[in-house]
Design brief:
The protein is of the alpha+beta class. The chain has 16 helices and 12 strands. Among the domains are: 133 residues, no CATH class; 103 residues, no CATH class; 62 residues.
Amino acid sequence: MIELQFETIRRELAEALAGLDPQMLPPSDAADRVAVLSAIEKLAAGGRLVLLARAAQDQRWRNCGELSAGDHLARQAGTSPAAVNEAVKASEQLTGLDATRAAVTGGRLSPQQAAAIASAASKDRAAEAELLRAAECESLSGLRDRCSRVQAAATDQAEREKVQQRNRSFNSWSGRDGSLCGRFSLPAVAGAELLAIFQPFRDQAFLRARREGRHEAYANYAADGFMDLARAADQQRSSHLRPSSPTNRPQSTQPTGTADAPPVSPSRPKARIQVRCDYFALRRGHTQPGEIAEIPGVGPISINTVRDLFDDAIIDILVSKGRDVTTIATNTRYIPQPLRLALAERDQVCFIAGCNRRHRLEHDHQELFSHTHDTSFDNLHRACAHHHDLKTNHGYQFIHTPDGWKCLPGHQPSTEPLQFTIADTGPDP
């Protein structure tokens, strides 16, 4: 009976879409239908997620010559076995999470939101209601950060870091257009170090493009910066491999290597990493419920790892006890470093609700500095270049609403035509 009902819905939807001609619709009607189809898509994806773990137990894939149930389901859906296996794991974690399952089948959660909540709530059932409320107002990246903290509090952090180390990976493949594509996974600290080393190359690529008059998506500049980083590493390697004359060869106090020990790599500059940590946890040596030790934008780490970083990196550490960064203020435009760290921790993405841009965030005075001369925590936010430009040059205002900060047209809109560019910011971390 249920199978017939699903098939009827599928057939009726296919018939409704068969004669669809976008050019015959006004843009407003097209937008309305997209909204309806998006709701249908979430319902269908939610139902699939709930059923997937049970469907993976079906043994008929053995009769199709497939390698596994995951391969069979991936071929059926036109996706990768890795994506299916991750979805199956999320489907299994929904067991016993009745409220989350109801939100999924009701179309109130996307599969990505459901997977994040299921992973965290399966470790701490008491956090399920809070995470579901957060999903209603937070971005996907914000929800994932919250879920990551719940998991960290419910699991042994040292063991978590061992799992990250075991699961580290780097994979590459050829894309549909022949481009090289890749995916990697690193432990949190190694990932933070990589981002800290990579950032100057990415910023330099952006500035070079601006000087050349090129305006592209930020992901394009990041790709250029990545190649600059690789070439710099190759140039450094080549300079150390290049033979030199005895008179010009530098004297080194480092061991040159033996049959039992490889040559020691040249020392590298320390990366600059930002860490957020509770004062008492740092003194105690471990976190307790409600306390935080993490690298913003990367994830939770153990207190031992925080201490190790003092030797391996340059740390900007924001401790929640001690000088209250929210009280630091100046009457100039200069933003003191402790205040910059506090703003970077609070506004890890653009502070406008629903905007997930993380890169090249700009400091904005909510009340105009020319009127108030107030450079303080409460009067400063970090906004992406797009939203900051709307406020600065096009008459928009940042308005605080019950649903968070919004960027809305002001009372004196600019007469210049707005040109919006939708940039591909890439997948969420």
